[in-house]
Design brief:
Length: 124
């Protein structure tokens, strides 16, 4: 994973912000199995077992906090602050996504993994 600002491979996938709908659309478009966002690093898609960086706004603490508040309950946020991590299934429309937040030891990241049984892959 490259630090922000370091040169990386060019990629056709780009996001304007990190809303759950935009991230799910990116997963569907790219045929990705997972997305990883970590503060201070380039966002990563996992496609066919390979890591692939994608363009988007900087993954800042503020962006991560906004995303956290959009997909979690107050109880889940309290649990994250107390335990350093939370994992849950987010139901968004007809999609189910395994969400894993970590905020410990100077690491702040989230991974989103669509649950494959209901996810439709794009036609190739």
């Amino acid at each position: 994973m490259a630090k922000e600002g370091e040169p990386g491979s060019s990629n056709p996938y780009r996001l304007i912000n990190y809303s759950i709908s935009d991230l799910l659309n990116l997963v569907r478009t790219a045929g990705a199995e997972k997305i990883l966002l970590e503060v201070g690093y380039t966002p990563i898609l996992f496609v066919k077992g390979q890591k692939m960086e994608f363009d988007g706004p900087g993954v800042t603490t503020e962006a991560m906090e906004e995303f956290l508040h959009n997909v979690t309950s107050t109880r889940q946020i309290r649990s994250l602050r107390k335990n350093g991590s939370i994992e849950f299934v987010l139901v968004y429309g007809q999609h189910q996504i395994l969400v894993d937040f970590v905020e410990a030891f100077d690491v702040y990241r989230v991974s989103l993994t669509p649950i494959a049984t209901i996810w439709h892959k794009p036609k190739q």
